[in-house]
Write a structure and sequence with these properties.
alpha/beta; Rossmann fold; 7-stranded mixed β-sheet
């Protein structure tokens, strides 16, 4: 397939945009029809500039064109995509820098409008709307859009509930736009944290709204936890793509490791792992570190002796094994000599060639009808 076009032509200007993480001969564009619908609406309503907040921009297409007060996002990958695409367009006088506001903080008051890509996780969408209902003044606008195949039937209902009167526009180019106007009703409270009792830890774990498997222990992680005791104890464990931190918590609780590093690209995941560590080890002195970023890029702490990982194979709605393969490379780079990676993955994902590229010895530890647990030893 030919490489994707990188010149994005919008009513607000033309911009060079690339996806992040970057790879050779990328076949996917850094924008979609939902972005285009939003930018057309921004142009028609003259909303660009100060007072406008962008939410959930994936690769900077909205933020670079609309010159907002900031990007509100949960994703370190999205923040890095924005940074790199801002650099690509640095020569354009109409492209200023865009501050990043993390999902774990509330947006500022004084906004005239919000332009939002509807996120993949519906609880996260509801959380964002509840936050916005507390800061938007009556009469301010919220524009939301997504691709038809990814939109929940509840999008308009939630906009009506939290923001105010909502118009569901006719679909165009397999995407759909919604516009809502903040009314004078009092803001609704924020939804509570999700939680579940994890019997393998004998503890209740909490998670914020954009965390993977926030209200139950997913089957792949369960399989890895069931075989964790076959591993020899180490000094330091790295829970890579940690989610709510369940793997690292189990390693600490069972004495498999004396210290742990929790890493995720989601700000809410890192915050959830931090909260669970504080609860489970409230009366104990343990060494823990937290890293919010693209895998282990930018992390300058000590190497780990063991990595535990249940890698994602989606980048937002896009099925993308490349994300998981990069994490395997990061695992090898941040393991001490002779250290091990314990990986659980869906059986249809052929990670074995990648594991053999970066590790000396690769062993299939366990499997069931859906998942495989691999152990890989780094070269000494």
């Amino acid at each position: 397939m030919p490489a994707a076009d990188t010149l994005y032509i919008t009513p607000l200007g033309s911009f060079e945009l690339q996806r992040y993480p970057a790879r050779r001969l990328e076949t996917l564009q850094a924008w979609c029809a939902a972005d285009t619908l939003l930018l057309e609406a921004v142009h028609q309503s003259e909303l660009a500039g100060p007072g406008l907040l962008i939410a959930n921009d994936e690769h900077g297409a909205l933020s670079i064109a609309a010159r907002p007060v900031g990007l509100w996002t949960d994703s370190a990958l999205a923040a890095l995509a924005l940074e790199r695409n801002l650099a690509l367009n640095a020569g354009a006088a109409q492209v200023p820098s865009v501050p990043v506001l993390w999902s774990t903080t509330r947006p500022p008051r004084g906004l005239s409008a919000v332009v939002m890509r509807v996120p993949k996780q519906l609880p996260y969408f509801e959380y964002q709307l509840a936050c916005l209902s507390q800061v938007l003044e009556p009469g301010s606008q919220l524009l939301a859009a997504g691709m038809d195949k990814h939109l929940s039937p509840r999008v308009a209902q939630l906009l009506e509930r939290y923001i105010g009167p909502t118009q569901r526009h006719r679909g165009q180019r397999k995407a759909r736009l919604f516009t809502a106007t903040r009314d004078a009703r009092p803001a609704l409270p924020l939804p509570g944290l999700a939680s579940y009792h994890c019997e393998l830890l004998a503890a209740r774990l909490v998670a914020m709204s954009n965390v993977f498997s926030q209200d139950k222990l997913d089957s792949g992680t369960r399989l890895l936890l069931e075989h964790l005791d076959t591993q020899a104890p180490v000094q330091r464990v790295l829970d890579l793509a940690c989610g709510n931190g369940v793997l690292g918590l189990a390693a600490l609780q069972r004495g498999l490791a004396h210290s742990a590093i929790f890493c995720d690209e989601s700000a809410m995941a890192v915050a959830s792992a931090r909260a669970n560590v504080a609860t489970l080890f409230a009366n104990q002195s343990i060494e823990v570190h937290f890293h919010h970023g693209d895998g282990m890029l930018g992390y300058s702490g000590a190497q780990a002796d063991m990595v535990l990982c249940n890698p994602p194979f989606h980048l937002n709605h896009t099925v993308d094994e490349f994300v998981g393969r990069r994490l395997l490379e990061h695992s090898a780079s941040h393991l001490a000599a002779g250290g091990s990676l314990c990986l659980v993955a869906n059986r249809h994902l052929n990670y074995q060639p990648t594991l053999k590229r970066y590790f000396q010895r690769v062993t299939r530890v366990a499997q069931n009808s859906k998942f495989v647990v691999w152990q890989a030893i780094r070269r000494g």
